């Protein structure tokens, strides 16, 4: 089998990898390796909502999103439920409800033809005198000057580069059910007894999606217990149509974020660019990819340092969200915020 050589090899074709592949200068020979298939209806357990920050990121790229990606209905508020205290508040939000798999495939479709796209899963990679040698599980081998980890929470690039640097992780579990509620809604749920993170629900094309982030130990048991506790709040689940799960990172420190070294780079969640308060990651994925693409337009030989400098505002944004977390996740502070009714709206 003939080995192929590239300037830049990107692992992962989510919003981070797809955006980077589209924006890199054409003078580079680029390959993107992704495990998704067009026919695969897998939807990452994240609810499938496009936040205002993510919308702004797309606007900065001057691209418009086709209506086929949208899901029905569009909802303009989030119903926040504190299970421990029984408090419920509604807050106005301008999220866009979408089909996450179609969204990912659309971003991949924008990649120019000069970038090679191939399906596969990376088994391992190691540094050599010219860059990196990358081996896939199917036996294919690629050589590249630079490698980019856009491969999410389980990033093989991050694990290889920083084997001793771990970040708090959760298991995101999500199920789909036939919609049984008369009025579709979007909710954000806090339940101290089952998770120190959050859960969510969203109506999407006559399907109710319910998911949450849980500590790895006994995560499925905690998920099922939370579903039972939500029944008194009017939730109707029934028999699940589909169950999905994945690992999600949640940075607790500014220093959890790693941007790369030795001709290797990390973008999106692989770098730690994900909101520790809401677990929103699409905006960080797109923005970090934009910054790395800009780095590759420079003639500097120290691209790792240039990229690290460019991402300082993203790292500061993560730090600010870390400081925001106590007001969302500390039971007493959350109760005070919800009792105040600050920025909430009355639902008739």
Please report the total strand number as a whole number. Answer: 18
- Judged by helices, strands and strand pairing, the structural class is alpha/beta
Q: Summarize the biggest pleated sheet.
A: 8 strands, mixed
Indicate the overall shape.
Answer: globular
| Strand residues, percent | 25-35%
Q: How many DSSP H or I helices?
A: 9
- String of helices and strands: EHEEHEEEHEEEEHEEEEHEEEHHHHE
In words, what does this structure look like?
There is one protein chain. This protein is an alpha/beta fold and about 350 residues long. It has helices at about 15-25, 50-60, 100-110, 155-160, 220-230, 280-295, 305-310, 310-330, 330-340; strands spanning about 5-10, 30-35, 50, 75-80, 85-90, 95, 115-120, 120-125, 130-135, 140-150, 170-180, 185-190, 200-205, 205-215, 240-250, 260, 265, 345. The strands form three sheets. Strands 1, 2, 7, 8, 9, 10, 16 and 17 form an eight-stranded mixed β-sheet that branches. β13 and β14 (about 205-215) form a beta hairpin. The radius of gyration is 21 Å and the shape is globular. The N and C termini lie far apart (about 65 Å). The model has no long low-confidence stretch (mean pLDDT about 95).
């Amino acid at each position: 089998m003939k080995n192929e050589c590239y300037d830049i090899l990107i692992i992962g074709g989510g919003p981070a990898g797809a955006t980077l592949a589209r924006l890199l200068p054409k003078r580079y020979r680029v390959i993107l390796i992704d495990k998704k298939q067009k026919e695969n209806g897998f939807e990452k357990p994240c609810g499938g909502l496009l936040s205002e920050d993510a919308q702004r990121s797309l606007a900065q790229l001057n691209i418009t999103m086709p209506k086929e990606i949208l899901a029905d209905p569009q909802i303009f508020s989030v119903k926040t439920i504190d299970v421990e205290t029984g408090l419920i508040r509604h807050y106005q939000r301008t999220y866009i409800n979408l089909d996450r798999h179609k969204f990912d495939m659309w971003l991949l479709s924008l990649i120019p033809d000069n970038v090679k796209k191939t399906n596969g899963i990376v088994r391992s990679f190691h540094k050599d005198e010219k860059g990196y040698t990358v081996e896939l599980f199917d036996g294919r081998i690629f050589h590249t000057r630079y490698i980019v980890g856009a491969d999410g929470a389980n990033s093989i690039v991050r694990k290889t580069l920083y084997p001793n640097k771990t970040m708090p992780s959760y298991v995101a579990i999500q199920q789909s059910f036939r919609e049984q509620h008369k009025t579709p809604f979007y909710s954000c749920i806090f339940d101290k007894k089952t998770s120190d993170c959050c859960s969510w629900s969203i109506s999407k094309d006559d399907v109710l999606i319910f998911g949450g982030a849980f500590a790895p130990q006994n995560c499925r048991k905690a998920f099922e217990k939370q579903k039972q506790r939500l029944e008194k709040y009017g939730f109707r689940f029934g028999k699940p149509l589909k169950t999905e799960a994945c690992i999600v990172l949640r940075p607790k420190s500014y220093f959890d974020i790693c941007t790369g070294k030795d001709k290797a780079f990390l973008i999106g969640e692989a770098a730690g660019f994900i909101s520790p308060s809401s677990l929103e990651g699409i905006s960080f994925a797109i923005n970090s990819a934009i910054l790395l693409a800009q780095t590759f337009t420079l003639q500097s030989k120290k691209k790792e340092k240039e990229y690290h400098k460019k991402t300082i505002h993203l790292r500061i944004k993560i730090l600010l969200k870390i400081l925001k977390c106590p007001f969302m996740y500390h039971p007493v502070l959350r109760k005070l915020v919800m009792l105040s009714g600050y920025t909430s709206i009355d639902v008739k």
